[in-house]
Design a protein that fits this description.
Blueprint: H1 3-26, H2 32-55
Helix pairs in contact: 1-2
Length: about 55
């Protein structure tokens, strides 16, 4: 697999995680702390780690 394909797969995985996070929060299955924790960790990965992978 080339780098572009790997980045797309990682992006889609985080998209699915965030959609599930929003759905679970809207049905009050998870608490607001877990919701924000998942959101923050996803933002860290998308804005911090993926650009570093893309540069290499």
């Amino acid at each position: 697999m080339d780098k572009e394909t790997i980045l797309k797969v990682i992006g889609y995985i985080f998209l699915i995680i965030l959609l599930a996070n929003i759905i679970l929060f809207s049905f009050r299955i998870i608490s607001w702390q877990i919701f924000w924790l998942v959101l923050g960790m996803s933002a860290l990965v998308v804005y911090g780690i993926l650009p570093r992978i893309k540069k290499k």
